[in-house]
Amino acid sequence: MDGPSFSLVDLSQFWGLLPALVFAALARERAARGRVAAEALLEAAALFAGGVWVITNCLGAFGLVRPDALRLVWLLAGVGALVSLWRMRAPRVAWPRPRGATEGLVALAAGGLLALTLARALLAPPNTVDVLNYHLPRQLMWLQQGSLEPFLTLNDRQNMMPPLAEVLGLQFLALTGGDRWANLPQWSAYGGVAIGLALLVRRLGGSRGAATVAALLGLLLPMAYHEASNAKNDLLAAFWTVVGAVELARWRTVEFVATRRAALRLALPFVLAWLTKSTAMLFVPPLLIAGLWPWLRRAVWSERARVLLPAALFTLMMIAPFHARNLAWYGSALGSRRADGGGREATEAFGPRLFASNVLRQASLHVVLPVPAWNERWLAGVRTVHRWLGVDTNDPRTTLWILTFDAPYSPSDETIAGAPVHFVLGLPILLVVAAGWRAGGARDRVRWLATAVLAGAALFCVSLKWQPWATRLEQPLFLLGTAVAVVAVEMGMRRWARPVACGTVVLAGVAWWPGADTVGRTLWRSPRITEMPRDVNYYRMLPRLAFRDRAFVDLIARSGARRIWLQNVHDLAYPLMRRLQARMPDLTFVGATADAFGRVEAIVTLSLGVAMPLYGEFAGRSDWRLVGAGPGDGIYLPATRVWELGWERNMPDFAGWTKHIGLTPAEHDLPGGGRLSVRTIPSGHAQLFYESRGQPMRLRVTARRLAAVSDRWSFSVDALGADVVVDCEGSGVKEIELPLPSEPGAHVIGLRLSPGVAQDTVFTRVQVIDLPQPSLGRRL
Q1: pLDDT band at residue 232 using 50, 70 and 90 as cut-offs
Q2: 626 close to 652: Cβ distance less than 8 angstroms
Q3: d(CA 393, CA 364)
Q4: What is the Cα 167 distance to its own chain's centre?
Q5: 37-60 vs 301-330: helix axis angle to the nearest 10?
Q6: Are 655 and 611 in contact (CB under 8 A)?
Q7: Tens of pLDDT along 663-678?
Q8: Which residues partner with 655 through β-bridges?
Q9: Residue 161 has what DSSP assignment?
Q10: What string of DSSP letters covers 305-359?
Q11: 419 vs 465: CA distance, rounded Å
């Protein structure tokens, strides 16, 4: 694992500078062709990302997506970039400079936001749940197998999701051997969004002042600010969409001459958005239709074919590798995600009432405030409207997974932070502009973009189920809507435009401030990311998993297993994978082929503490036996290996049964600090179901009373047809071990608490174990 801080002695980190050098050469080359600074940077970013995508796919065709091969490619590219920069005879690039005190303050604020996010991006490890769940694990698997091909996994997101953001991050992971640069692609997109919005406003007819306001409002968008220091892909997809809109604005002018090269330049950012995030498939089509409509109307068929056909072929060639892999693996170009418990993200029913429900619930994510009374009234009103509509607010056809509708005010939580100022002030402007009120002349320059943004929002609400973390998916809409609103205010209000813009920026800053110190990567609130080692900061969101992962690494190292299959759907796999690689460099994560899966030596199951059966069936074998340590999750080894190691009693604290009724997971605060994972029985009675294979079996239970009392209490166990009463006294810990029926088949255990103690009694261990048959023996 990476250490807690940068070190100049760690020369491997300097490999990460090669991509920056190549990008600088590309930007300089664009400037040499007459582009202004902003245009040069945006075009260079698109060319850079497109080149990385093509080269990585080509290397993958030969199994060469590996650290040594990628270092060689980037070293050659870096040398070429140095030669290009040395020999280039381009004029000095004219970088824009602030004019006057107002622009100076805006530039200072923008620089502060960029500096804050850069500090987090560099100091904090990637610790967003989704990043550790599938964004980074898929990169480790690609590097291991040498290609971007799919691999066997329970977590289909690692295979089917558009991979461009991860392909960019993969370069830094391969070059440096660590993840210190993992957050940089999204941070670069954060700065790129400001540049793109400024250029877009100028091309829409806005003034220089309006461009600076739009750039700052883009940086103050809470979702963008939070994502600037993580390794996800939402902000990167939004950046490509903004770059595409900048190109589209050129096509809107009558004097623009469409050429094949211009069409290719237009297609590239939208292709990159498509390859970065699936939601681009909703936002890009209306944007292209609205932006190209005037040119399509005035161009004849032959001109359309001559200009657009090469761009269409280029688009198909760029997206073909990704969709072809999905088609070959899943039988669908878009892939197929296991819909566990309603996990399908696509809406399963349509109609005006369901659409209104989604619109209202999505809007709720952005109108909650730090005023509980207001939030309660708003949510009550939303539920009232749903009763009028005859629609359930938690309708599973339009609600993701097993979620229930709520809109908490959590501005520092990067997954659910809303944008109240951008939404409340921007939406009415978008509606007025799109409706064409007082349209004509200069105002028509933004009407197409307002229409495209609203159409994208409608498609979003129609196509996707409601989810509380939808705000991060909506970033392209908010950023493009910001450009529309700024230009529309300047054109419509004229005399009052400047004070309105200043007031909006102030309000946006006020809304941004409560979330300025992101929960997972705190800079000034305790505990700060600089106060904790890097390998501890990985677990900021779920700290209890750090102990589990340490135990896993130790168990696997001592078991001798070196070919493991990692079962993970919603858990944090990446820190464990890195720990395992650091401890055992010869370890292989199985999953590339079915044949390789058949030779697996251990199954590591990550399930966020969900209890697991004593035996599992994997790779055509049913003798995988559970071992582990800690509050939950475990490792399956061949049963004979468990007996050889003498690990039959080494079990997760809550494990060994197939299902339960009435046993509820909970967290208990320890007196000296920290939290303990426990199980409670709120109703006073519970049932455990387990399977026996004919071997001697035991039940192990540890209970404790939380209340500081001295009275007697008890719990009983019904496992052999009669209750076994366990008498306890005070708040001490009581441990028991009882024999269980061992006849082959299914069995039930009853657990009951004495009256009056259910609310303050917890179980810290409930295990169903078996003992080895004498014929198997044991090698200690």
Answers
A1: very high
A2: yes
A3: 12
A4: 15
A5: 40
A6: yes
A7: 998 887 766 666 778 9
A8: 767
A9: S
A10: HHHHHHHHHHHHHHHHHHHHHHHHHHSSTT-----TTS---B-S---HHHHHHHH
A11: 20
763 CB contacts (<8 Å, ≥6 apart)?
A: 663, 678, 679, 680, 681, 701, 702, 703
Peptide bond into 533 cis (omega under 30): no
Q: What is the mean pLDDT of the chain?
A: 91
> What are the counts of helices (DSSP H) followed by strands (DSSP E) for the chain?
26, 17
Closest CA to 399 of 322, 439, 337, 344: 344
* Nearest CA among 568, 307, 522, 299 for reference residue 414: 522
Residue type, position 613, single letter: P
Measured CA to CA in angstroms, residue 461 lies from 104, 265, 363, 465, 642 at distances of: 40, 30, 10, 7, 51
Q: pLDDT tens for residues 45-93?
A: 999 999 999 999 999 999 999 999 999 999 999 999 999 998 876 556 6
Q: Tens digits of per-residue pLDDT, 108-136?
A: 999 999 999 999 999 999 999 999 999 99
Question: Per-residue confidence at 194, pLDDT binned at 50, 70, 90?
Answer: very high
Helix (H, G, I), strand (E, B) or coil at 24: helix
Q: How far out from the chain centre does Cα 612 lie?
A: 26
Residue 366's alpha-carbon distances to 233, 463, 512, in angstroms, are 21, 20, 13
Residues with Cβ within 8 Å of residue 771, at least 6 apart in sequence? 648, 695, 696, 697, 698
C-alpha–C-alpha distance, residues 279 and 346, integer Å:
11
CA separation for the pair 766, 753 (Å, rounded): 14
Reading phi first (left if > 0) and then psi (alpha if -120 to 50, else beta), residue 572 is in: beta
Fill in the DSSP letter of residue 131.
I
Instruction: Beginning with the edge strand found earlier in the chain, give each strand of the sheet holding 685-692 in spatial order.
Output: 659-661, 685-692, 745-753, 712-718, 723-729
Is 375 in a helix, a strand, or coil?
Answer: helix
Pairing between strand 723-729 and 761-770?
unpaired
Query: What is the layout of strands, in order, in the sheet containing 615-618?
Result: 588-589, 563-568, 602-606, 634-638, 621-627, 615-618
Residues in a beta bridge with 748: 689
Q: Give me the half-sphere count of Cα atoms (radius 13 Å) on the Cβ side of residue 596.
A: 14
Distance CA 551, CA 564 (A): 16
Tokens at 161, concatenated: 């999701």
Residues belonging to the chain? 780
Beta strands in 536-601, from DSSP E residues, in sequence order:
563-568, 588-589
The Cα–Cα gap between 62 and 690 comes to 48
Q: Is the pTM of this model over 0.70?
A: yes
CA–CA gap between residue 66 and residue 56 (Å, rounded): 10
Residue 450 has pLDDT above 80, yes or no: yes
CB 131 within 8 A of CB 226: no
